[in-house]
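S.,

Sequence below, as promised.
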Amino acid sequence: QVQLVESGGGLVQPGGSLRLSCAASGIIFSFNAMGWYRQAPGKQREFIAAITGGGRANYADSVKDRFTISRDNAKNTVYLQMNSLKPEDTAVYYCNTKKLEGRSVNNYWGQGTQVTVSS
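The prediction came back faster than expected:
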């Protein structure tokens, strides 16, 4: 059973930093690409960043040069370091992975962690 548990959200002032963590179980973590998404009130969930099992990362243009995704395969954990935060970064942040089960590739999501950027 795949489980993703996010932590690290909170309230931060504009220009501040936060680091989100996502602990994964039920997958061969080092083989799985991991991703971060976010959803602001009244908006669709959007892609933020992803990292392959080998550590190759890609980012949405809106967060490039401010956010960094990383992973620790020994801890089965993926991180999202968020710097220079803006009010528009306020959202619930979700961890994501995919798993091949039989003939299907299934998406798995964590419960989400709230990030609020406000003075």
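The mean pLDDT is 96.

Coffee later?
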